[in-house]
Design goal:
The structure holds two protein chains of two kinds. By secondary structure, chain A is α/β, with parallel strands linked by helices. Chain A has two domains: about 190 residues, Rossmann fold; about 60 residues, no CATH class. In chain A, the strands form two sheets. Chain A has a six-stranded mixed β-sheet with strand order 6-7-8-3-9-10, with helices on both faces. In chain A, strands 2-1-4-5 form a four-stranded antiparallel β-sheet. By secondary structure, chain B is mainly alpha-helical. Chain B has three domains: about 25 residues, no CATH class; about 45 residues, no CATH class; about 210 residues, MetI-like fold. Classes of the chains: A alpha/beta, B mainly alpha. The interface between A and B is medium-sized, with 30 and 23 residues.
Chain lengths: ~300, ~325
């Protein structure tokens, strides 16, 4: 927690928020990442995607992981899911090291990844069937979770008949039906339009409130991270390292109107300072160089 | 009405035509070749390089019903006129190997209604049935091994690495080259014929199907893994159901492939089936029968493919791209 003086606001927590964090930190640690390092070997040599990443997540916490492109946030999610291995350090779920993917860590991907040959209900039943539950038992169970995401009417529709937001709700139900310990979400609303997106955020918070689930949510959208998270893990790029674990001072329950509250703005200012520090120098992208030539009548101005 | 602007052009890049236009053009694709065939057959001044002699006149070597080169006919005609003898009469005609559409249509009809000329000869449909059986068994045997192997190669790199390099080599060996070998191994009847079709189909089949399997979106497999799917169940519950529609399309294409090997296959050992029918009819210069037999292979091929396509659309309702329009 450095830089206390530059933007003092975001560290100030109201009494309720402080109490909430106290309570949160007293809960069991569900996920512990210790000095996680991931090195890719490519033809051009080695690239360090993640370097000494450490953090702890408590039960029923909502963590957002944010960072510029190339900070390895997706890689981190995939390592947590067990879809990718890692080169050093430890990843512990309930104190046990992660070895490959498993039903205790559900995942929602940005590309919807629903099984197109299965109906909505059959998609939700998939996890149960794979874990040995009979179809007769899995059916009613799946319906229950479909109701939770408000899609019981679409139980017999095929994924291609759904909109993007609906597909992602099915994906959430499909992951939750397995009752995982944590739900990993890798930019799940990245492909949705702004309106659907904010609806989905509120919907997700509603689900999270009612279910015993810990959420690790990857995003590059600052507003999204602040709106959703208890704590935000900020990563920096090349190599992916933890910059700060920010406790979001915005009180819960969250509402869209809070987006202009001082706590929200203070947090956002802090995130912006971390992610885009001195824009010109650090940016890996080439600045847009333009030599503007006038192609229209000099007198015909639009601005 | 909404899409009026887009429907009006005939040459819009990668735009679907309207329903009526699709129908018209679809028929035209068959009618055009038939029209060309009719023109060549029925319009006397188009091609017609020969003359069908109707009255021999005084030309000693002419015979009634004989086809003769137009130049020779004209020369003899001039000769007779010069010598004051009786001139021959004839009509422009096409060579015997190009019968007119109505003759082929009649042959088509006769093939199913009049018994074969030879005592032990087969009806066309009997010959055809022999061929269909050869194709069927060839394709079934090839698929029984080829489909599972292709799916395994597309799913596990181990199998791909183990089988694909050799198959890649083997598929360049022309199937008919194995004819004599197959006769030596399997005898002269249906065995070697089926074997040729298997050899012709199998190697392509494995490669095509393994490629199709590899095209399955890997993120579906990842999603299944995060839902606790075991490795074996990934194959049966994700890979196989996921590729079925593409696999089905592959099989349709491969079945057409198998048909192309039929004629060569049936010439091996004792000729049989539609090939025997065709070669016999050609020997007696019954070319209208030859055309009828060739066309019926086309009809059967196109017919099965249309039925299979229709079945496919019904079976894979969930597959959006395949069911567009």
């Amino acid at each position: 927690m450095t830089n206390k003086n530059s933007i003092p606001n975001y560290l100030d927590q109201s009494v309720e928020v402080k109490a909430r964090f106290e309570k949160l930190k007293n809960r069991d640690v569900i996920l512990e990442v210790k000095n996680l390092t991931k090195v890719y070997k490519t033809n051009k040599g080695e690239t360090t995607a993640l370097k000494n990443v450490s953090f702890k997540t408590h039960k029923r916490e909502f963590v957002c992981i944010i960072g510029p492109s190339g900070c390895g946030k997706s890689t981190l999610a995939r390592v947590l899911a067990g879809l990718e291995g890692y080169s050093g350090g430890e990843v512990l779920l309930d104190g046990k090291p992660i070895e490959g993917p498993g039903r205790d860590r559900g995942m929602v991907f940005q590309g919807y990844t629903l099984f197109p040959w299965r109906t909505v209900k059959q998609n939700v039943m998939f996890g149960l069937e794979m874990n040995g539950m009979g179809v007769n038992q899995a059916g009613p169970e799946a319906e229950l979770w479909l109701e939770l995401v408000g899609l019981e009417k679409f139980a017999n529709a095929y994924p291609h008949e759904l909109s993007g937001g609906m597909k992602q709700r099915v994906a959430i139900a499909r992951a939750l039906v397995n009752q995982p310990r944590i739900l990993l979400m890798d930019e799940p609303f990245g492909a949705l339009d702004a309106q659907t997106r904010s609806k989905m955020q509120a919907h997700l918070l509603e689900i999270w409130r009612n279910i015993d689930i810990t959420v690790v949510f990857i995003t590059h959208d600052l507003d999204e991270a602040i709106f959703l998270a208890d704590r935000i893990l900020v990563l920096k790029a090349h190599p992916g390292e933890v910059m700060e674990l920010i406790e979001v001072p915005v009180p819960r329950p969250r509402q869209l109107s809070q987006i202009n509250s001082p706590e929200f703005l203070a947090t956002k200012a802090r995130l912006e300072a971390l992610i885009h520090p001195h824009e010109e120098q650090e940016s890996t992208e080439e600045p847009i160089q333009q030599r503007m030539i006038r192609f229209v009548n000099v007198a015909d101005n639009v601005e | 009405m909404k899409a009026k602007f887009f429907v009006t052009g005939w040459f819009n890049v990668r735009q679907e035509l309207s329903k009526e236009r699709r129908k018209i053009i679809g028929w035209a694709s068959f009618l055009l070749p038939i029209l060309i065939w009719c023109t060549v057959s029925y319009v006397p001044f188009v091609w017609h390089p020969e003359v069908l002699v109707e009255k021999v006149g005084d030309v000693d070597y002419f015979q009634e019903g004989m086809r003769i080169d137009k130049a020779i006919y004209l020369e003899e005609l001039a000769n007779m006129k010069q010598q004051g003898k009786k001139a021959p009469q004839g009509e422009p005609a096409n060579p015997i190997y190009l019968p007119a559409p109505h003759e082929v249509a009649k042959a088509f009809y006769n093939a199913f209604t009049t018994p074969p000329a030879q005592k032990d000869g087969l009806w066309m449909h009997q010959s055809l049935w022999q061929s269909i059986q050869v194709i069927f068994w060839g394709f079934v045997i090839s698929s029984l091994i080829g489909v599972p192997l292709g799916v395994l190669c597309g799913t596990y790199s181990l199998f791909a690495r183990l089988f694909e390099p050799f198959i890649e080599f083997f598929r360049y060996l022309p199937a008919p080259a194995f004819g004599a070998l197959m006769v030596a191994i399997l005898g002269i009847y249906d065995g070697p014929k089926i074997a040729i079709i298997v050899i012709g189909t199998f190697f392509q089949q494995v490669l095509v199907i393994s490629n199709t399997t590899r095209k399955l979106d890997y993120s579906l497999i990842e999603a299944a893994m995060t839902l606790g799917t075991s490795k074996w169940k990934l194959l049966t519950n994700v890979v196989i159901p996921g590729i079925l529609p593409s696999l089905y399309v592959d099989m349709r294409i491969l079945l057409g492939w198998a048909w192309t090997y039929l004629i060569v296959a049936e010439l091996i050992g004792t000729s049989s089936g539609i090939t025997l029918y065709i070669t016999q009819q050609a020997r007696y210069q019954h070319f209208e029968n030859v055309y009828a037999a060739i066309f019926i292979i086309g009809f059967i091929g196109l017919g099965t493919d249309l039925i299979l396509a229709w079945l496919g659309r019904r079976m894979f309702r969930w597959d959006k791209p395949a069911n567009k329009e």
